[in-house]
Amino acid sequence: MRRYERNMTTLSLSENESLKNFKVCVVGCGGLGGYLIEMLGRLGIGSITAVDGDYFDETNLNRQLLSDVASLGVSKAMKAQERMGHVNPFIKIHPVTQRLTHENAVEILQGHHLVMDALDNIPSRVTVQNVAEDLGVPMVHGAIAGWYGQVTTILPGDRTLDLIYPAESVKGIEQTLGNPSFTPALVASIQVSEALKILIGRGELLRKKILYINLLDNEFETIDL
What we know:
The chain is α/β, with parallel strands linked by helices. The chain has a single domain (about 1-225), classed as Rossmann fold. It contains eight helices and eight strands, in the order H-E-H-E-H-E-H-E-H-E-E-H-H-H-E-E. It has helices spanning about 15-20, 30-45, 75-85, 105-110, 120-135, 160-165, 175, 180-200; strands at about 25, 45-50, 90-95, 115, 140-145, 150-155, 210-215, 220-225. Strands 3-2-1-4-5-6-7-8 form an eight-stranded mixed β-sheet, with helices on both faces. Helix 2 links the parallel strand 1 and strand 2.
């Protein structure tokens, strides 16, 4: 299919064709999540579950790819489905218009090959880590705050978020540093590259380490955990 010919030779023909068989869950359809869904869909990931119980408001317009003036008040998960219908109608988008909680996490996450963390609070991230571990599903974590971002890949049993966030943490520093337009796109692109490496089984992962990004000073540092 000509749609994917520019994936070559980054991917082999067999790798490219295999992507349609994968099912990825993106938890959060805001700043990070919109870009994650966009890039995964353009790559050709066959099935994407888009999870978000929120609706677009005016504060989202500065950074969230799926948001526009006409979408204010619209479900983020449903807009993800609509957007991908225009971008790549061969991709199946399953919108989940509820917040992921401890009570519904197993039902939402089971059956996926990979989970992408695009959340904005630490307890929900930890819930995703715990349930993904129980289900044996890898997870790619990303977070943004102002000029800064971070990415790590978490395989079942790694418990990496326990090393990143202090116990009882609720919100990260994005509450004080804000979120501009450029960090979500950058961090999401690195998350998608990690996701692709997991799915095709090739390349070095950010496993048991974290990539810390400081765009203000142009610093990219990989830290062993």
